[in-house]
# Entry
Amino acid sequence: MTVSLETVGQAASAVYLSEHNRGRAATSCTFVEYPHYPQQQKCSSSKWTSNSHVHCPSAIWRRRSSERGLPGSSGVSQHASAVEVDKRDPFVLLPCDFVTDGLDEPSVVWSRYDLNPSTVHQRQQEGDELKDQNQLYSSRTSMKTDALKTGDLSLNLTKLHLSDSGSYTCTVRWFRMGRQRELRVTDIQLQVKVSQHASAVEVYDWDPFVLLPCNFLTDELDKPSVVWSRYDLNPSTVHQRQQEGDELKDQNQLYSSRTSMKTDALETGDLSLNLTKLHLSDSGSYTCTVRGFSRGLKKELRVMDVQLQVKERFPSWAKALLVLLVLGLLVGALLVHFRQYFMSVYQVEVDSGAESVQLPCKTTVHLPKDAKVEWRDGDNRKVHVYQNGSDQPEEQYSNYSGQTKMKRNLLKPGDLSLTLKFPRERDSNTYTCTIYNRERRSLMKKQVELKVKVYQVEVDSGAESVQLPCKTTVHLPKDAKVEWRDRYIINRKVHVYENGSDQPEQQDQVYKDRTEVKKDPLKTGDLSLTLINPTYRDTDIYTCTVYNRKEHILMEKHVELQVKVHQVEVDSGAESVQLPCKTTVHLPEDAKVVWRDRDYWKLHVYQNGSDQPEEQDSDYRGRTEMKRNLQEPGDLSLTLKYPTDWDSKTFICTVYNREGDILMEKQVELKVKVHQVEVDSGAESVQLPCKTTVHLPEDAKVVWRDRDYWKLHVYQNGSDQPEEQDSDYRGRTEMKRNLQEPGDLSLTLKYPTDWDSKTFICTVYNREGDILMEKQVELKVKVHQVEVDSGAESVQLPCKTTVHLPEDAKVVWRDRDYWKLHVYQNGSDQPEEQDSDYRGRTEMKRNLQEPGDLSLTLKYPTDWDSKTFICTVYNREGDILMEKQVELKVKVCQVEVEEGAESVQLPFRTTPDLPEDATVKWFCSDRTVHLYENRSDQPEEQHQDYKDRTEMKKDLLKTGDLSLTLKHPKETDTGKYWCGIVNKDGVILRQKTVELKVKGNIRIRSSSTDPTPLMADQSV
# Structure
């Protein structure tokens, strides 16, 4: 580097324009904030600019693409960023900005290449195009309606899951000169987390038990388990629960026979730990950790930290009060004063649809006549109020009107429990019973946690019907109204029964002629609903509500319906797969059978005793087959030929009568497994397998394509057709001959790189262009990874070959943005071709033409060098002879210290005897932390936040110890610190990044359930 630290900001624009005028343009137009000068920005090409937006013409992309032999079809470099979000957040926005003005037929695709299919969301000029969308994201993604006009291509993702964590790619596509072009604009690393919570619980050693709260739903994890730990102990395990039950072989013996969890903890998500026989030594920090597998990867989530404090039975102040108690003084006041010894959260569980549930609250204390009893829910709304010997309904929140009841004569020692009628799912809450005296001071308080369970029903897709149960023993009035609703968007009406009969005119169109209730439901109390022909779209929570004539709710019950979809799995390249659909019902002769995919494209239509190919979508033409005599009870299964991973989706078989009413419907989910091949970057070649046992016609045409439909290889009329091949693959592929004989259509791909990590498709056509067979192969090219510490003197990027290279071969090392690190040609280095960022920092061995070592030594690596580097060898014609990639990760030194410490050291030690006129500068963001220049410190250049707080050692240039001591570190000092050594010519000699974290003294006391003991009598 030749730009000094002091002038880099002012010279930024000039540097960029100079490079641009020389024709050296960046691959990507995405700009990122440079970490040390936030007022400036740094292009992903490592060239400075002060502009906030730069237009990148396609000619610039083509220039960079052509340097590696690309046809100008796709951008290579991309801007990467990371987004963290909590699972409980309503949505997350993945940013992507790119102006598409001037592009023909622009579109944007958001992808996750670790999934199959990889499409998360696609937007075209006409609107969203979601036929290839991965079903994991169905109904959860959206973009602005004017995205392609404004350039705001950000993706909105809702209903977050832990499995949404991954790398998302925003790609823009368009057409130019009749060919599709593509630019990979940005990569977003999304991390969906469960926020860690901290709470504090205080309890006394005479209490029978304590409950340490932890709540987390594990339904998204495979093989879930939960571990409670105390990391100050050895072993640290307090309690462990797996799906099979408790696993206590690693339990610390201090907790033997003293811990327990609910039997259904992993099913309900209530992972709270019950600890009995309390000791003072139980005081400490307890951690609740959930473990499991997601998408084959092991996950571990630290859900909750609980600080438990077990206090002595009688502290000194309590003993003084006990003396007064012995003397018989203030007995009542003491009972009130010790209220915190007795409080806890009582838990009650009840089924949705039960007639009532009791929330217990009892006391042995005699309450004053003018006491007031208030029940409130977790949102502080009044559930029930009792005062002056009677209920006070006018103070009650409207949702609870007519739903609550308390006993009379409540003020005598006894029962303050509340009866809640017809509990509903939304009544799951924490309720608090509080008693006040006339001065509105609390005399006692108790909490009850209510959980209303939803009844669950499961049925197979294609079943004739399913019953959603709802029964009651309560006598219902004759004029009552029964209403079934779903939860879809606006709570659609599923079925209405009123005035002694069904009311189909009130029913939503989706459920027309598909529902049924028994006769005289109000008389029998059986309000169950029969749903005919359930499909996967009917998976929902349904609510049965009974109203009186005044529209007051008499009862309500929830039922959760899960419609299971039949799953079929097949290998890509198989000749065919059967999608099963069978029925025992006799179908009418004029019935119509329609098979559709999830996007409602028709696979196959059968009517009037024959197939109807003219109604079939072109993608499936010639690929489907059904049996005849479908009207006989039996088999409506469909055979799908040559399945590919694009066929991995849900298919629906629907049977209609002549009026168009659905007689039956069934879904089948097909998963087509793609063959996977793995190879190291730099390998001489890799084989993409494609074999068949079918005899192919002599005039068959074999076409290998990549996922973007660029042609790798074409074979026809007994020979290869290189003129049809895309330039990226020219000279890099090879196929065997005599392909018509049943056997091997495999393709050999030479010099694979990680850009070749994609899905390839082998398709065989007959002379009419019909597909005879198709197979997909997913290639993963592994990039060699090298790791080094920031501040190291050098690192080697390995590249070795066993091939003998010609004498006039040219070796070029580039970074991922195609800036040249090092060029070797004609027996010597070519520093004039080297990018200024790397000048003087690289070194290669000589005699490279001998089979052996093309490795590159990179001096003084920093975290900016964390990227992928490419070593390419060309012959004199410019053809690639070999190529290998190396991913370098420069680890940033991390230092952690507690706030309040006297000092912390940011370490940086390098070679001794540095130039005496060198300048050493430590800075964080745009602030100068410490400057050493002209053989002394320069405190006047220091930012005021660091005044009198920094110190460097004497003779630092002589010893090479450039470490910085920061005194009295504060939490606001947390951040990345960069140290650079510059000689008098402005050349950076050494540099290092140190990440400092100053931990604040956080004292948290909070909990979703109040840990204060139950029935706490508060002193007045």
